[in-house]
Every structure is written in C-alpha cells, then in structure tokens.
Amino acid sequence: MPFVLPFLVFGTLWAWLALAIPFIFLVAFVANRESGWAFFTVFIALAYWIVSDQKVVIPWVLHNPERLGLYIVGYVLIGIAWGFVKWFFHALRASDRYKEYRAAWIRENGEIDDTPWNSKVSNTTKRQRFVQDVKSRDLEQPLAIDNKGRIIFWMSYWSASMVESALYDLLVRLWDFIYARIGHVLDGISKALFAQQHADFAEKPIVVPAEATQDVTPVADKEF
Length: 224
Hints:
Layout: H1 13-31, H2 35-52, H3 54-63, H4 65-109, H5 126-136, H6 148-156, H7 158-193, H8 195-201
C-alpha cells in the first residue's frame, strides 16, 4: 500500500476518523444541495477505501458480484424509502411556512374573505390579493414534478440526508414544540413589564358633563 500511511490502513481507528471527516463535509454539502461537491466527496472516500485496502477490496468485488449487486439494490431501495420520508419533512416545512405567513397576513389585513381589497381596486377581493401574495412568495403546495432533482439528490445521498434531517428537521420541530408550550408564558412576562404602555394605549371613554346632555329648548324668533 504505497499510497497510504500505515496508521490510515482501512479498519483502524484513525482510518474511520479519516472517513468521518469527509462524511461530515458530505452532510453539509447535502444540506446545501451542493451536488458537485457531494459527488466529489463520495468519490474521494471510495477511492481512499479501495486504495487503502486494494488487496482485499478488489478481489472481493471480483469474486462476489452477486453480493455486490444485492448491496447496490439495497442501497437504492433504502434511498427510495428515504425519499418518501424526506418529502414528508419537506412538505411539512413548507406547510409551516405557509401557516406562519397566513397568520401574519390576517393580523395585518384581517380575515381572508371575498370583500373588496380596497376602495381603489374594487374588482380585487382580499382572497385574490392573499393568493397573489402567497404565489409571489413561493408558498404554494410543493409538487414532486417541480422537485425532481431535489428528490433524486435525497435518495442518492440518503445516509447524509438522514443525518441532516435528524440535525435540522427533527431538532427544529422539537424546539418549535417547546416554544409552543412556553410562548404564552414569555408573552405574559413582557405584558407585565409593559403594563404602563397598555394603559397608555387603551382608549378611555369620554365623560360628557351632565349639564351638556340636558335638552336645550330653542328660543322662538322674536317678531319685529
């Protein structure tokens, strides 16, 4: 093995660490959809594996084509199954973004209905304006036909994609769950600290003096 340092012989602790480093880079490339760098990382890792233990790897491949084929088929099947799982997380994330934008839009513009958007554009309803805003921000339902490259990318690098999803999708949803449970408590703290502001902003009823509400009898015009 002239191209490999002795302590990097495949199977040793240092060799596994040497493979872990490019895998970490692979996860980062998959998360950012860097297909070129992802392929380059996998190529380097496989090349290192073959060169570091070529006396075992190459003969095994030549003498076990059926088992190698089964491994490849298994890899593809796992990738296909992962494609469904990853697509669920992708659609779930898109749904969350839509719901957040919808809630913000309603807070700013009121309920989504068929009333006129404004007095100047009477032929546009609030619902039509909302649809336009959603489409302009790419918040529509994701379709598989529009994400072919993304899905194939997930299935091709399913191992790294799994780690990326565990670190992002699951972790983010865990923190969202925690936030949903403590959000109202945090709002209560800020509300207590801003009690004076709420009092200043509150509209107070106008007190009209009692004498101002008494009927005033009109004085008849004098005749001249």
